[in-house]
Amino acid sequence: MFGKYVSVLRVPGAARFSAAGFVGRIQMSMIGLGAVLLLQHERGSYAIAGAVSAIYALSMAIISPQVSRLIDSLGQRRVVRVQLAVHLPSMVALIVLAMSHTPDWMLYLVAFVTGASQPNIGPLVRARWSTMLTGTGSLRTAFAWESLLDEVIFIGGPPLATVLALSLFPSASLVAATVLLAVGTVLFLAQRGTEPPTTSHARQRRQRPAIALPGVAAVSMVYVLIGGIFGAWEVTTVAFSQQHGHPGVAGLLLAIYSVGSLGGGLVFGALNLRASLLRQFLFMLAVMAVVTLPLPMLGSVWLLGLGALVAGIAVAPVLISGMSLIERIVPMSRLTESMSWPSAGLAVGLAVASPLAGIIVDAHDASTAYWITSGCAVGAAVVAFALLGSLRRANVAATARIAAGTQVAARV
């Protein structure tokens, strides 16, 4: 069953760019927590730390799709090298400012620049997989593999960030995350043989943004709510553990949720499902809503651990089917930009839900704040079914485009 993963990794060049992409995006699971640990230590304020993390995430969400549009027309190597050249000194400046007595607004400004120049490795990796495997059943397995790697990153990244910051020095996790990003990105860009082809820059400028393509906005709106699940879950779980007298269990509960997602994604990606990608996406969203709904009613740490395992099982399948659906419904020439919009949606949802959950925890208790998590899960399913017409039209248009391409290829 799991031999399908081995099969896709045996495609020439695939294992190398996937491994480099894995190293390059470990940073994304360390940066937020690393910033909080550094700023709380240096400035003594969770509010400032939360604001910096939110600005970083939102600036990346705003700018990343625009940069991805350039990547589709100019190529990964040309654009991402410039991003890295801006991001690395900006991160150094952010660390230095955090440890100095500069005004808070300077931190916020540099956080915006640093987030805006952050290379978004996930869509770049998936674009390479799509170039190699589009039109084959193996592409879904490849996307599942990358989602599994994301889960591994989010299982191991936060504990690593905490250990580095507490054992070495407060900025150690940010330094390590930035080094990993630089090394992974350089290794990734060095593999030019698997880089997707580019489109005409002049033609690209005349085209409407990818968010206006049929179905992309609908999937991105769903991903905003999925990001809300993640943001509210993390903040509320830390508070829940503290309120129940087991503060050290928070990391374990977060890891259990990711382990559930890892297991669900591993099985889902290896299955040969006959249902269309749209039906898979809708079904898994409905399942995620059902299994996430009970979280506010779980009154102990141990019940929450069991609930987290069950709730996590649906997460990776939703993300796998969502990205697979985007790959199907958009033209290959718009793929990187199109995949960046759902990623941006995740960042927006996380940035909004995290402080909202914190406000509810301060005013009430952690169990009440879990209604944000459950509400976002139910909301994601409701939005998807409400926008079903748009998703169906996009799917039908994709089917016609694929059939036309097949006929042209047959004539040649």
Tell me what you see in this structure.
The chain is mainly α and 412 residues long. Helix content is 80%, strand content 0%. The chain is built from 18 helices and no strands. The chain has helices at 3-9, 14-25, 31-43, 46-74, 76-98, 104-116, 121-133, 138-167, 172-189, 201-206, 216-243, 250-270, 277-292, 301-312, 315-329, 335-363, 366-386, 388-411. Helix 2 (14-25) runs antiparallel to helix 9 (172-189), helix 8 runs antiparallel to helix 9 (172-189) and helix 8 (138-167) packs across helix 15 (315-329). The model is unreliable at 406-412 (pLDDT under 50).
Summarize the structure.
The chain has 412 residues and is an all-alpha fold. Helices cover 80% and strands 0% of the residues. The radius of gyration is 21 Å and the shape is globular.
Helix content: over 70%
Overall strand count: 0
| Topology as a string of helices (H) and strands (E) | HHHHHHHHHHHHHHHHHH
Main sheet specs:
none
Estimated radius of gyration = 21 Å
Q: Ends: how far apart?
A: 36 Å
User: How much is the average pLDDT?
Assistant: 85
The poorly predicted ranges are 406-412
Instruction: Tell me the β content.
Output: under 5%
Structural class: mainly alpha
Helical stretch count? 18
Overall geometric form: globular
